[in-house]
Amino acid sequence: MENSFYKKIASWGLLRQIKAEEIIDENISSIRLPNQNEFNDIVKQWCRFNKIESEEALNSWKILNGLIDDKWEVFIVRKWQWSFWCINNFQDKIPNYYLERKSYLDMIEYSIIRVKNQNLANELFLRIIENEEKFEDIASKYSEGPEKNTNGHIGPVPLGNSHPLLAQLLQISEENKVCSPKMIDSWWVIVRKEKLLNTSLNDEIIQKLALELGGTFLNNSIDSFIKKYSSRKQNFKKVKF
Description:
Elements: H1 2-11, H2 15-28, H3 36-49, H4 55-64, H5 71-90, H6 94-105, E1 107-115, H7 118-129, H8 135-142, E2 153-158, H9 164-172, E3 182-184, E4 187-197, H10 203-238
Antiparallel strand pairs: 1-2, 1-4, 3-4
């Protein structure tokens, strides 16, 4: 029966997803339920994340997703239990993992101008450093990305969300210094680092890192399962009667 079930969900392309949920259930079975205050916070955070701002909107979401009665409560509490399990299970690994990830967790504010033409980029850079025009004015006039609408200003955003080459440039740049045009992908970019905001190991970051480690744990467990599952299938095919 179990093999038949896995065969069916594999044919749907859902084997990894379903197995992940199974592994989560196995590990949270001993995790306590939240108290009333914790549950109220879970509901508020979940509604805020899903941009649900009224009881009517919440009821519509429940009906649309087939989570009526107490099923919705089980659904959101289960996510809390998984987060709780990850924090408890990986608490010894989180400090070192934080140090590994810190450069990508830090928040950055910067200004950027991006254009396709190298000659134009060089000309705009000279105008800025020679104080002929302000960076913000040039960004609003010439930049070809969405930052055009914010006078070139970006952030604060996680440094890790930036293009790897841009993130590296921002890390080594001095604050308020305009960098000469650099090519990133198909763009010529002029960047000015405004401020780097160091991210501390607070509760929010602990939860984020714990869930990342939990994701790695899930992927490794699923890989191991699929390897064994595939091996059993191959061995079954080799049997001759």
